[in-house]
Amino acid sequence: MALQQGLSGLNATSKSLEIIGNNIANANTFGYKTSRAEFSDMYAAALNGAGGNTVGIGVNLAAVAQQFTQGNISVTANSMDLAINGPGFFQVTDGVNPTLYSRNGQFKIDRNGFVVNNEGLRLMGFPADGTGTIQPGQAGPLKLPTAGIDPQVTSKVAIELNLDSRSGPVATAPAIDFADPKTYNNATSVTVYDAKGQDVALTYYFQKSGNDGWNVFVTANGQPVGGDPATPVATLAFDPTGSTVTVNPNPPTLAIGATTNSAGALTVPMNIALDLRGATQFGAPFGVTDMAQDGYAAGQLSGITIEANGIVMARYSNGQTKPAGQIELATFRNPQGLQPQGGGVWARSFSSGDPIVGVPGEGNMGVLQAGALEESNVDITAELVNMITAQRMYQANAQTIKTTDQAMQSLLNLR
User: Residue 195 is inside which H or E element, if any?
Assistant: First the structure.
């Protein structure tokens, strides 16, 4: 029997060395989770359950247990690299077979715009509609947009500024000559966009008409808005403290006709609501502290960024950003029950249970870190020590067989 016991020890220790060798081989594999050999002793079934002096018949490899501890996160220069900081798995699919799960965040964009890993499996998530609104529901392969973003016509302009209360009224008020700075006190400009995304240069002229009164004139590409230079588009009346303004009309609407911009293009007529409620009149120099407008030109996709909550933001050449989708993660009640498939992916099994899905950062899901990868959680030092131990155990089991063989040879030599 000792021969069989020693053989089982050799087999078990050999498996342990294989597991240790596999861990060491994958020490630089991103997303790899170390495994360990778990053994159990074996006993022959005794008649009637008796046998207080029963000797075991060897050892058995009970399980190869995966250790799903967090690996170190290393920063990379690739914005498509993703690391999960905390629980969760990326969901990837080939579109035919059941969904697979991975901790390896080395993703790329294929020729069709899908986010894929090195095995060509597509990352799963939620799509976004044309306005950038995430469409939750059944996750599918995440596809990035290839088209540009349409222009948006300017519908509103808001100005926050201070008009110097120390400035004197203009003698020509309300008439104004835009080419003559003596007919107005201050001016500022902003670029707005028509329905085609063509730029229109708006210039605002502020003319003091009295102690606390101001006239506001506007030109579009050099042409007076409203047509009559003697008629302001709005008037401002400040209270004695200069902090509260009454705008008439409120809000003024700029009816901008077709003009020729600096590129020589004929612009499309538009109407813009002008918000001047942020104006003040203090004894300080004229200054614009904020100028906001809601239009933009057409733009082409220039890059993407991925937020910690998994939202993929598309970045366009006109400075706009818009969500293009959101990554969905999955967790399991028993991650150790997942079945390794190679290529850095696992398949669910009866032991692992069904996946619990959600977006990063919600519930017990980890968060994403873009431009980073999760390293293997293999401890090289510990594995080398385990290798030495396994080697000694192999030698000891071999010695058991050798000693048993010598004992049997002694019995055979008896006369």
Answer: none
